[in-house]
Amino acid sequence: MTRLSTVNPDATVLDPQRFIKRERDGSALDIDQINTFLESDPHARDLTHQLVDQLAHDPVIKTDTSTYDLTKTEQREVTVKKIARMALYMEQDVKTVRKHFRDTDLLKSMQDLNDNTTPPLTNKDLSIFDKRLSLVANMDPQLSTRIGVHLGLFGNCIKGNGTDEQIKYWLQTRGALLIKGIYGCFAMTELGHGSNVAQLQTTATYDQESDTFVINTPDLAATKWWIGGAAHSATHTACYARLKVGGKDYGVKTFVVPLRDPSTLQLMPGVTIGDIGAKMGRDGIDNGWIQFRNVVIPREFMLSRFTKVQRNLGGQPTVQIDPQMDQISGYSALLSGRVNMVMDSFRFGSKFATIATRYAVGRQQFSEKPGEPEKQLIDYPLHQYRVLPQIVIPYIISPAAFSLLNYYYSTLDELYAASSKNDKRALLVVGQKLKNLFIDSASLKATNTWLVAQLIDELRQTCGGHGYSGYNAFGKGYNDWVVQCTWEGDNNILSLTSAKSILKKFVDSATKGKYNKELDGRSFRYLDPQFIRKVFTTSSENKLDSLYDYTNIWAVALLKLLRHIAKQVEKTKDLDGASKLLVLVSKFHALYVMLNTYYEKLNSPTDSYVTCPKTKEELWKVYKLFSLYFIDKHAGEFQQFKILSPDQISQVVQPRLLQLLPEIRKECIALTDAFKWPDGMLNAPIGYYDGDIYHNYFNEVLKNNPVEKDGAGIPPYHKLLADMLTRGDEFERLGGANNAEILTKLAK
Amino acid sequence: MTRLSTVNPDATVLDPQRFIKRERDGSALDIDQINTFLESDPHARDLTHQLVDQLAHDPVIKTDTSTYDLTKTEQREVTVKKIARMALYMEQDVKTVRKHFRDTDLLKSMQDLNDNTTPPLTNKDLSIFDKRLSLVANMDPQLSTRIGVHLGLFGNCIKGNGTDEQIKYWLQTRGALLIKGIYGCFAMTELGHGSNVAQLQTTATYDQESDTFVINTPDLAATKWWIGGAAHSATHTACYARLKVGGKDYGVKTFVVPLRDPSTLQLMPGVTIGDIGAKMGRDGIDNGWIQFRNVVIPREFMLSRFTKVQRNLGGQPTVQIDPQMDQISGYSALLSGRVNMVMDSFRFGSKFATIATRYAVGRQQFSEKPGEPEKQLIDYPLHQYRVLPQIVIPYIISPAAFSLLNYYYSTLDELYAASSKNDKRALLVVGQKLKNLFIDSASLKATNTWLVAQLIDELRQTCGGHGYSGYNAFGKGYNDWVVQCTWEGDNNILSLTSAKSILKKFVDSATKGKYNKELDGRSFRYLDPQFIRKVFTTSSENKLDSLYDYTNIWAVALLKLLRHIAKQVEKTKDLDGASKLLVLVSKFHALYVMLNTYYEKLNSPTDSYVTCPKTKEELWKVYKLFSLYFIDKHAGEFQQFKILSPDQISQVVQPRLLQLLPEIRKECIALTDAFKWPDGMLNAPIGYYDGDIYHNYFNEVLKNNPVEKDGAGIPPYHKLLADMLTRGDEFERLGGANNAEILTKLAK
């Protein structure tokens, strides 16, 4: 309610709360079970709820609609306050994992270079904080990016390329992993090079006499660009630069370069930094550019697990490179970001699905007949088609996102173990796992960040004008989100590289029977030579009978698409010419992996946690809708590659799709309530839990734009307006010199 | 060049200017002829160039990259300064049309209520200014909206619903059309109702004794919402309210309601106004909300061309409504906006096409072999597929946009003439024309605002990270643009209503032979009964042989789609159930109309203005690419409805599409240069004419973010960061109470 609303409590026309309540009352679903399913398992679910509850109520970190009115400068300052707050949670979270809160100061011991009794920080120690960071990304993406660049990019670059001693020194002793002591940024991208890391132009030239590297920016285009945290905050950077020793160029390696004094934030000599300025979104991140002019660092600041430069006074310095591991380490730095973006896709998508569904249920517009109450938006078939498939997208992403994250952590643990022991055999296996992980993460990152960008846009439009309001989350949400489509691997580049690897695997399997059941069984079962043979020798129609058929059809589609491409490339010898189709391979792979993972989880007696039969049935409907929606979207390819016939599209796919919509519609509130986002996380009054759309929205607008000060009376620039409106006639304004009388005089 | 760039002039790696120059040198096209084609004719083209030149250099109106850093408050104030400047151009433009600059003050005479010798202001008088406003929409959308609401919505509402005397009084005497005296807004939408205008809840109750209307907001949901100009600027509003006379509700009518004193901008009694606050884009527009509490206006302030209330003291007041004209007037108020949005789509789209093409030609990334120069982005097949179809979209929109605009003006002139003379026969014809105009404008507005939203997004992604920079126009461009998809007729609603009308026309023609060659020949030639019969009785394959086939196939597609829907609805009796397909009908109609109009113009010996054979050939390639691109996009429907076979898709459509891309690529710089946008209009340094991408971009970033003040040294919130980084160990911070020693003591 609001002081400014003259509400008639008897009004029957607009009472959105009533509709939302009715849906909840009528639901047959167990949303706790669904939530457990979506959050992976009971333990992970509980942790999510604890963290969300804490963050959404933390006095510094919580967000409200006033966020949408902050200027760039304000956003940046507020974000730093939040980082400092998150740093305190970090300490808490590490101690929670170790259950060590008393007697000795755990963190102090970790920072102590001479302490040999406290085990070093592991991924497990950071597991709670990583989850916290992933959740805060959903409330305030720029906050998580600012921290993520420091921990995820700067930190992982050191972890992936540094020696054990370097890792301990920079990340523990100096405090980086505790967001303390130093603050890192990740100086990879340059003005002239993004995707092509191998062509970066910044140089690190070894000077044997002083036993140092000299870092230089040789050209404007070599200016480090877009560097998150560089403009104001970073004290150190993980700098990608060409290693030059004795006149020879050894390619791009990584170096820790101090940028600023941590106590005053003053720049180091030779370092020039500027602010990148305004962005489409995430203005709270201080992206900057960096130029180096003869910046000198000790040799030991080069990260040298796989690349070592040795001083050799009196002779030539020596350079040792482990090429295999150097390449593997190249994969790993950006993997973390991609894996997390798949999780972000699930969470961010679910937020907007919740907002738009509540609005669609609460909002009425047009009645069937004059005098009848207006229909709820969600009861229009077109609206169902626009909203409901978007709800199911985060559902299908979730199991794949958790599975990918777990696989990433376990593979990374294997990598660190094998690489510490220098176990070549183990490294070989890990290397192959990393390659598969690269394919999956690239394809899932690209596909899902695109899907969620479309989801936000489509759902914003379903909220009409109110979706365009700054206070209903869509605008900022979209602007913050879409950078995920081009950063840390541009989606098109990622799609192409992952698809090219899949194509190679396909050819290897189809022509040489090469297939590693153990490794490829996780995401590439469609490449099993037996399956390939079956698909290409069976002439029977593809069906959508069993539940698994809804996954299997994508496996068939992938094979037919891959064969088409392979044949075409064989003829044209032009792989790039098939790019448009390769992007599709990456997308189909992601859809297949997600459906498959969802299918297996829901089917699993131990992992689904869904015992209520009605609930399980509903979750199968969700699964079917997702598959049908994308088959219909790709009906062109399904018909062209003869996966389904035109009649199957007309008589099976589309009718089933249209039949499912009104069924899913019945539980759409329960299905979105099951995401369990508190209002503070949604931060969009038209989507708050109570469904009191109009009062909530009006109140938030009013809170941020007080009526007396700003609206009524005299606005700040009223004189400009009044002067315009009351300007005199033109001839008078110009002193009358155009009047016939004067002109006659002038003519004389 | 820039002081901060250490450029090596011999560098061979990155020299984007060279590539762009090479393209220009190698072009065989006559871009002046193309520009004339795109700008409709030589006269219109010259006017465009004059106005663009004037606006892009006007000291108040010109925009530069600093625009992207303005806060909401600054944007609003700057916009008012620009409005005041535009008001002076308005005076100039009216006098230019009348060639009246001397002897007597033309505008003063127009404002004089008693002057009977000066002819009233016509659409022709406003033609130059309308074009100016349309062009400025391309530089600064919020400026044109703020003026457009006043002239286009407030003004057209009065023109469409007022008597001749009311029109003259409000628009001339009071000065509104000269942006003087009063400033109008358009209070239609309410918090609870947008698309469903008939259900608006604001009331205007007639009080016979005082001979006035009392305007009231009965409920929170009846609050006028989103009203552009209401928050700060409007002195009057065209208010949509339910006419209540003697207890009877006559439905929604229009009233002029004063809101503020024009000399002080102070609110009138009973009027409460607030600011809507932050939006996704167009923050320079002061959208507001309005509540009325017993606001009294004289009876004569009701716009009463078609609805008249007569006082009848001692008896019941009488209400006279002309239902037919009342409905027609309903169409016309929003038509202007829609028609203009089609033109905006052409211009706005062409701007981003230019930026992205120059970047794609100048930017290099990855080389084929190590050591070779890196390839230009535009030479990758995938990049061609992403960029080039987007270039041709504005090409194909242009002829349809001009044709629609001209038809709109001529039909409106007919309407005013017929309605002034009360010529019932003429009104009947105009009414039918307006209905067709409604279908075309709705379908073209919806389709093209969607296409351009996708175009901006897709092209932003082709510029990678640099597309996400605030200074390269995409972010603000997208945010400003996408409101066009939901306002002044939500795209989905417009698509549905236009498609339902098309379906009705189809059924009338197919079953009853009803078809008006004269009226429907303009956009609905595919509904000619002879053509329908031909399509449904011929069994031969559809071909893409002749040039016209590329248009004709869409006519065929429309008929097959319409027949499918008609059959389905006949069976299900559920028109809404076919909504998903109806949206497609609207889109296909728009594509058909655009291709047809382009085809006719380019084919015309008098209207194409393209005499150079190579140029004409290129423009036919543009036409083919557009058609093929969208056939491929809709390959699902083309196969499902048996318009083309899977083999035709594989062997004709896709190969031709992929062959055309490298051909169009050869002239992509010329094709975008031909739009002739000056840098000041593009306002995106990666797309400036000279192609010096990196220097231009770096310079603009630096100009807006001075390196010394902001980047180097100590940022504003450095203390927050330093305090966090240098915080002590936790046990010390907490006073050591967790130490084993203390805890032992506490345990005693």
From TrEMBL, chains A, B:
Catalyzed reaction equations: a 2,3-saturated acyl-CoA + O2 = a (2E)-enoyl-CoA + H2O2
Cofactor entry: FAD
Pfam family, one: Acyl-CoA_dh_M
Residue stretches making up the Acyl-CoA oxidase C-alpha1 domain: 331-502
Taxonomy, superkingdom: Eukaryota
Acyl-coenzyme A oxidase N-terminal domain span: 30-172
Protein's name in the database: Acyl-coenzyme A oxidase
Keywords in alphabetical order: FAD, Fatty acid metabolism, Flavoprotein, Lipid metabolism, Oxidoreductase, Peroxisome
Family the entry assigns: Belongs to the acyl-CoA oxidase family.
Principal subcellular localisation of the protein: other
Stretches assigned to the Acyl-CoA oxidase C-terminal domain: 548-725
UniProt-annotated location(s): Peroxisome
Segments forming a coiled coil: none
Pathway assignment: Lipid metabolism; peroxisomal fatty acid beta-oxidation
Organism: Nakaseomyces bracarensis
Domain Acyl-CoA oxidase/dehydrogenase middle: 185-295
InterPro entries attached to this UniProt entry: ACOX_C_alpha1, Acyl-CoA_ox_N, Acyl-CoA_Oxase/DH_mid-dom, Acyl-CoA_Oxase/DH_mid-dom_sf, Acyl-CoA_oxidase, Acyl-CoA_oxidase_C, AcylCo_DH-like_C, AcylCoA_DH/ox_N_sf
